[in-house]
């Protein structure tokens, strides 16, 4: 394996390292634990959604509706608080996310609507439901103290949601690499026909992947609403670009079959570190966008041009 | 067995077209006409203002800006390029630059420069997609983010206002009672239609989307054709943005948000397959007309905005699911 | 050993597709612990029979017994449950998983609910070791060469502990060393009492490994014999069978100067050091077994695949052909083997398909002249009697033969000096076949140089002036028409006669 290929394979780590190094050298006070904790907390929302997106992309699917699901779940969790109490309402919010994912899965698997189009449609639908329920107004929660409790920093670095993010991504890593179901997910995304011929049900796998992605978008949305003590129909409108960027920067392929949880962790942290550092330097938001966009394109082009692998032969598929 | 929805490889397209057939064509083409007719009839019965020239001019005006983008997006879907998600950025590029450059180089050169730059953004996406082989979703998302950032940086990240009221008057002027902007849209649509259905480039576009390998084997410059669709969309979005900027006489960076989805919605509702190889500008515009009329009726009926969105979303899902089901049915019958 | 000696008994198997009888009343009996080879020309029905056996096709008539019990297999999973495992020519593997995971795909061992990777790697390593394949079980499958992937596919079937294993051309991408290793494992499987169905073109290998041989021809079973009572020459005779009647009348034509010359062409993998020339007014046959490198060669000459050595000359001048567009400019046209993948754009009409390569010439200021476009399509539709004679009809709605005629029309519209036809009559009905041969005859009579790739021996013998036989990427010296016979070609193709 050449050095170049190795560099490309572990490019996320390289870029994350470089980002942190440059940031520490140029931004005073960047390498402090507080900054780290801050960066981690702000990356948690994107990170939790990115977990679901990683699974979907590996299965060769995509979900554009996660931002809307995020808002819908948060609203559900806040609006039901006076009715059934805070924690049952939170659970209901997560379930709303799962239901949204199931609806996407239904459209995609049963009705065979292209995932891109299906989730484009549900993005509109879920967002509209969110506006509908709230009359387009932000909804306040019942317990303002809860948001403070959720923002408490533990062990000097973790908030509840950043701990949840890091914990879940490690679990995902374990699931993707060690469990049979995780391996089957790769099989479905890489060659669905071969997977089916070997007794794996691609439809079921894809459906569950959608439910999973919806559930995680729901969890992120509920946490966001509880932390801000608000349910708002405009939450999460710009999330999708960052989420896809983080997952793809992490080396997960949009064409399915390849990806990793640790890569996504790297991608999320890279983007969080970048934006945090640039904010410290008062770099305008639009320049930050340019940097994130450039990194995304650069990495994908690199991946494309220095892809290891054998030459493919037309002969391999020629039937007798 | 499972439909691979975001498959990027240009595999065989045969499965999708073998089913075709006159019955299917009739249903998919006629279905939309019937739907438009139904909305027209319902609208006329339900609201006294619906079937008036004034209302139709309003509908036309509101569909002109997105309509120009729809023409470009049709090329992207037909060539098998999935979707161009950089449209909000290229619209912003058109709107912001056409206003910001006015004091520097004059209104007409500013207008042209804004469109040219938007076209250049499309070229960037096109090169990445056609020649490097990057997934269109990733490429256009990335390019869009970069372009939007650069445009904002160029003007300092603030809202830009127009300095030349004459240009606004020109865009808002009417010819035979039809707003200039609508005439421009119609011109773009006619040019786009002939380009797709009558020019060799258009035929190449359909062939590339229909069967990439066969088109390549038939000496079609498939990479350039694929890239070209994104250039066309860039130019259209730039024009659309420039017109939008002149109409509003102000441009925010997020002025183009949502246009990409409206455009894709219209094209998909018009029955153009997202897998490529099939479709026409009139079909896409019929989809747009239907969506706009439906929205108009809902507005006149006092339906709340969220409900409208809900209905539209459901409409896309149903339209595509029906399309898939019909194709399969037709396949079984033949 | 199993109590029942007969592993598989198929009786009276017929399979009819609309318009075609692919199998007719085939009987096949395979015993446990024996290797049963099935041989036949391309199109003799081997693949169809195998698909019946793997549960992909339900036979039109006939019964199948597995270990003495009558079964009805509706899907591949049914066959797998009964202990039948297939090793396909088209690999059915997942490129993004490891070798070990592919071997155990769909039935990974578990330990505490998790995939037991250590066991998987250990077991896969043991099996690959037995196969004599130096493959790292932890490697990503997609990083392996095609021949290594073929071995993994075999390991996958073997690891499932099958009662019957079916191998379809398993050695087509293996080296001699790997083939020897494969035969060792087949003998071992035999000793374990597994019944092996072995489908191959390579008669030498068949004689080496098989206990019994069944010969198929035109969808019918010709004979089943013990392998040690038959010679390769006899097998060839039985496979070819029919008397060579002149079903393909040859149009006489004037042979002129060389048009296309290929010298020392190779792509470093599929074909090496191939040289031949085609003269105006001549049909050069290019034949050989599937996988011998014919199609790869043709694609390279047409600029659809890269070459690493050698050169191509047109009319005595070397030309650089790096894209189909360049090939078209040089006057080469190629009617591809895979009509569906490379030949037609299904969503376009017959007219639009025909004019695709010459669209620019039919255009003025970017606009396609509809009258020129229509005239072109109408002339071909009429000349080649494409049915239905409506150029506006979507090409995907035409029959295979008519699609093929449209594809040939498409290439003739470029006015080529050399036409390469890759299996031009595969999968088309008899009438269309004669029609296509008539068209080719007229073309060479008009001075065109034609290269015809075909696996159908009677076709090659009937229409070609000279024939080049390919085997394992190498081309034989051209055989003149006078010296042609089916047995001779078969011998060159299987390596019975050195090229």
From TrEMBL, chain A:
<dbReference type="InterPro" id="IPR001851">
    <property type="entry name" value="ABC_transp_permease"/>
</dbReference>
<feature type="transmembrane region" description="Helical">
    <location>
        <begin position="113"/>
        <end position="133"/>
    </location>
</feature>
<dbReference type="GO" id="GO:0005886">
    <property type="term" value="C:plasma membrane"/>
</dbReference>
<feature type="transmembrane region" description="Helical">
    <location>
        <begin position="286"/>
        <end position="302"/>
    </location>
</feature>
<keyword id="KW-1133">Transmembrane helix</keyword>
<feature type="transmembrane region" description="Helical">
    <location>
        <begin position="206"/>
        <end position="226"/>
    </location>
</feature>
<dbReference type="GO" id="GO:0022857">
    <property type="term" value="F:transmembrane transporter activity"/>
</dbReference>
<keyword id="KW-0472">Membrane</keyword>
<feature type="transmembrane region" description="Helical">
    <location>
        <begin position="232"/>
        <end position="249"/>
    </location>
</feature>
<feature type="transmembrane region" description="Helical">
    <location>
        <begin position="64"/>
        <end position="80"/>
    </location>
</feature>
<feature type="transmembrane region" description="Helical">
    <location>
        <begin position="86"/>
        <end position="106"/>
    </location>
</feature>
<feature type="transmembrane region" description="Helical">
    <location>
        <begin position="42"/>
        <end position="59"/>
    </location>
</feature>
<keyword id="KW-1003">Cell membrane</keyword>
<feature type="transmembrane region" description="Helical">
    <location>
        <begin position="153"/>
        <end position="176"/>
    </location>
</feature>
<dbReference type="Pfam" id="PF02653">
    <property type="entry name" value="BPD_transp_2"/>
</dbReference>
<keyword id="KW-0813">Transport</keyword>
<protein>
    <submittedName>
        <fullName>ABC transporter permease</fullName>
    </submittedName>
</protein>
<feature type="transmembrane region" description="Helical">
    <location>
        <begin position="261"/>
        <end position="280"/>
    </location>
</feature>
<keyword id="KW-0997">Cell inner membrane</keyword>
<keyword id="KW-0812">Transmembrane</keyword>
<feature type="transmembrane region" description="Helical">
    <location>
        <begin position="12"/>
        <end position="30"/>
    </location>
</feature>
From TrEMBL, chain C:
<keyword id="KW-1278">Translocase</keyword>
<keyword id="KW-0813">Transport</keyword>
<keyword id="KW-1003">Cell membrane</keyword>
<feature type="domain" description="ABC transporter">
    <location>
        <begin position="242"/>
        <end position="497"/>
    </location>
</feature>
<keyword id="KW-0067">ATP-binding</keyword>
<keyword id="KW-0677">Repeat</keyword>
<dbReference type="GO" id="GO:0005524">
    <property type="term" value="F:ATP binding"/>
</dbReference>
<keyword id="KW-0547">Nucleotide-binding</keyword>
<dbReference type="InterPro" id="IPR003593">
    <property type="entry name" value="AAA+_ATPase"/>
</dbReference>
<dbReference type="GO" id="GO:0016887">
    <property type="term" value="F:ATP hydrolysis activity"/>
</dbReference>
<protein>
    <submittedName>
        <fullName>Sugar ABC transporter ATP-binding protein</fullName>
    </submittedName>
</protein>
<feature type="domain" description="ABC transporter">
    <location>
        <begin position="8"/>
        <end position="243"/>
    </location>
</feature>
<dbReference type="Pfam" id="PF00005">
    <property type="entry name" value="ABC_tran"/>
</dbReference>
<comment type="similarity">
    <text>Belongs to the ABC transporter superfamily.</text>
</comment>
<dbReference type="GO" id="GO:0005886">
    <property type="term" value="C:plasma membrane"/>
</dbReference>
<keyword id="KW-0472">Membrane</keyword>
<dbReference type="InterPro" id="IPR027417">
    <property type="entry name" value="P-loop_NTPase"/>
</dbReference>
<keyword id="KW-0762">Sugar transport</keyword>
<dbReference type="InterPro" id="IPR050107">
    <property type="entry name" value="ABC_carbohydrate_import_ATPase"/>
</dbReference>
<dbReference type="InterPro" id="IPR003439">
    <property type="entry name" value="ABC_transporter-like_ATP-bd"/>
</dbReference>
<dbReference type="InterPro" id="IPR017871">
    <property type="entry name" value="ABC_transporter-like_CS"/>
</dbReference>
């Amino acid at each position: 394996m050449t050095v170049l290929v190795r560099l490309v394979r572990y490019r996320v780590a390289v870029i994350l390292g470089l980002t942190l190094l440059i940031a520490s050298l140029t931004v005073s006070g960047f390498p402090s634990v507080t900054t780290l904790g801050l960066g981690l907390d702000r990356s948690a929302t994107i990170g939790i959604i990115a977990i679901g997106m990683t699974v979907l992309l590996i299965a060769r699917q995509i979900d554009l509706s996660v931002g809307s699901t995020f808002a819908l779940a948060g609203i559900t969790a806040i609006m039901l608080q006076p009715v059934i109490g805070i924690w049952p309402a939170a659970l209901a919010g997560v379930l709303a996310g799962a239901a949204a994912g199931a609806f996407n899965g239904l459209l995609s698997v049963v009705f065979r609507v292209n995932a891109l189009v299906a989730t484009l449609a549900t993005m509109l639908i879920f967002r509209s439901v969110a506006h509908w329920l709230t009359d387009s107004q932000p909804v306040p929660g019942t317990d303002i103290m809860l948001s403070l409790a959720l923002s408490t920093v533990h062990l000097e670095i973790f908030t509840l949601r950043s701990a949840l993010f890091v914990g879940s991504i490690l679990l995902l890593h374990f699931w993707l690499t060690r469990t049979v179901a995780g391996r089957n997910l790769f099989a479905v995304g890489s060659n669905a026909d071969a997977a089916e011929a070997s007794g794996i049900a691609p439809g079921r796998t894809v459906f569950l992947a959608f439910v999973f992605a919806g559930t995680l978008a729901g969890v992120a949305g509920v946490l966001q609403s509880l932390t801000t003590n608000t349910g708002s129909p405009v939450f999460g409108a710009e999330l999708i670009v960052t989420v896809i960027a983080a997952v793809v920067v992490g080396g997960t392929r949009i064409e399915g079959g390849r990806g990793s949880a640790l890569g996504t962790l790297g991608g999320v942290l890279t983007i969080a570190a970048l934006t945090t550092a640039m904010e410290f330097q008062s770099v305008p938001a639009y320049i930050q966008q340019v940097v994130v966009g450039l990194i995304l394109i650069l990495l994908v082009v690199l991946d494309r041009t220095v892809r290891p692998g054998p030459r493919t032969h037309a002969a391999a598929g020629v039937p007798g | 067995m499972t439909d691979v929805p975001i498959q990027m490889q240009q595999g065989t397209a045969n499965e999708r077209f073998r089913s075709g057939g006159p019955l299917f064509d009739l249903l998919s083409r006629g279905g939309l006409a019937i739907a438009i007719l139904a909305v027209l009839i319902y609208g006329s019965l339900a609201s006294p203002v619906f079937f008036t020239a004034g209302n139709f001019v309003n509908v036309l005006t509101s569909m002109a800006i997105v309509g120009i983008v729809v023409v470009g997006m049709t090329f992207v879907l037909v060539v098998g390029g999935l979707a161009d998600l950089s449209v909000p950025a290229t619209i912003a590029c058109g709107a912001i630059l056409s206003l910001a450059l006015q004091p520097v180089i004059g209104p007409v050169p500013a207008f042209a420069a804004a469109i040219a730059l938007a076209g250049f953004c499309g070229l960037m996406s096109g090169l990445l997609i056609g020649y490097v082989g990057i997934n269109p979703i990733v490429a256009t998302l990335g390019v869009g983010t970069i372009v939007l950032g650069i445009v904002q940086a160029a003007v300092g990240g603030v809202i830009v206002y127009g300095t030349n009221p004459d240009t606004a008057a020109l865009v808002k002027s009417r010819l035979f009672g039809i707003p200039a902007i609508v005439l421009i849209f119609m011109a773009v649509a006619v040019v786009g239609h002939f380009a797709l259905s009558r020019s060799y480039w258009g035929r190449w576009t359909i062939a590339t989307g229909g069967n990439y390998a066969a088109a390549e084997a038939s000496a079609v410059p498939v990479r350039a054709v694929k890239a070209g669709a994104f250039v066309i969309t860039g130019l259209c979005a730039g024009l659309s943005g420039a017109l939008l900027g002149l109409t509003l006489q102000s441009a925010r960076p997020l002025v183009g948000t949502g246009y990409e989805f409206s455009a894709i919605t219209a094209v998909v509702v018009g029955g153009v397959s997202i897998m490529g190889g099939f479709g026409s500008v009139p079909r896409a515009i019929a989809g747009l007309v239907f969506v706009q009329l439906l929205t108009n009726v809902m507005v006149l009926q006092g339906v709340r905005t969220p409900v409208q969105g809900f209905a539209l979303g459901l409409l896309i899902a149903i339209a595509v699911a029906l399309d898939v089901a019909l194709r399969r049915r037709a396949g079984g019958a033949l | 050993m199993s109590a029942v000696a007969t592993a598989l008994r198929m009786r009276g198997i017929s399979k009819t597709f609309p318009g075609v009888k692919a199998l007719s009343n085939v009987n096949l009996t395979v015993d446990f612990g024996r290797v049963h080879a099935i041989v036949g020309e391309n199109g003799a029905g081997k693949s169809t029979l195998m698909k019946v056996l793997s549960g992909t096709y339900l036979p039109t008539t006939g019964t199948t017994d597995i270990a003495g019990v009558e079964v009805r297999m509706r899907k591949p999973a049914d066959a797998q449950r009964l202990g039948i495992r297939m090793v396909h020519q088209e690999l059915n593997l997942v490129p993004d998983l490891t070798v070990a995971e592919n071997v155990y795909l769909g039935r990974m061992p578990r330990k505490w609910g998790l995939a037991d990777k250590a066991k998987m790697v250990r077991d896969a390593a043991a099996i690959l070791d037995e196969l004599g394949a130096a493959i790292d079980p932890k490697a990503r499958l997609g990083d392996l060469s095609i021949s290594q992937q073929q071995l993994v596919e075999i390991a996958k079937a073997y690891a499932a502990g099958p009662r019957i294993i079916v191998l379809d051309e398993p050695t087509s991408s293996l080296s001699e060393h790997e083939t020897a290793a494969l035969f060792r494992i087949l003998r071992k499987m035999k000793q374990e009492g597994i019944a092996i169905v072995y489908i191959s073109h390579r008669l030498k290998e068949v004689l080496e490994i098989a206990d019994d041989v069944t010969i198929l021809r035109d969808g019918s079973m010709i004979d089943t014999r013990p392998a040690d009572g038959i010679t390769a020459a006899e097998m060839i005779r039985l496979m070819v069978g029919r008397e060579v009647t002149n079903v393909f009348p040859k149009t006489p034509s004037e042979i002129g100067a060389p048009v296309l010359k290929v010298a020392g062409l190779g792509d470093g993998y599929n074909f090496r050091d191939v040289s031949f020339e085609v003269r105006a007014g001549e049909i050069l046959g290019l034949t050989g077994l599937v996988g011998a490198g014919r199609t790869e060669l043709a694609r390279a000459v047409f600029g659809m695949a890269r070459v690493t050595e050698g050169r191509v000359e047109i009319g005595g001048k070397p030309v650089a052909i790096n894209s189909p567009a360049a090939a078209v400019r040089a006057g080469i046209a190629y009617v591809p083997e895979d009509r569906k993948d490379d030949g037609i754009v299904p969503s376009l009409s017959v007219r639009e398909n025909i004019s695709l390569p010459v669209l620019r010439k039919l255009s003025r200021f970017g606009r396609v002249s509809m009258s020129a476009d229509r005239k072109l399509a109408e002339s071909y539709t009429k000349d080649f009697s494409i049915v239905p004679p409506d150029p506006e009809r979507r090409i995907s709605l035409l029959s295979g033969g008519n699609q093929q005629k449209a594809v040939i029309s498409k290439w003739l519209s470029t006015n080529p000096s050399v036409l390469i036809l890759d299996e031009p009559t595969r999968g088309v009905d008899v009438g269309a076949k004669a029609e296509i041969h008539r068209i080719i005859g007229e073309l060479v009579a008009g001075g065109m140089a034609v290269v015809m790739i075909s696996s159908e021996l009677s076709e090659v013998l009937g229409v070609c002036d000279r024939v080049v036989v390919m085997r394992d990427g190498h081309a034989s010296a051209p055989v003149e028409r006078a010296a042609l016979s089916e047995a001779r070609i078969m011998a060159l193709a299987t390596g019975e006669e050195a090229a």
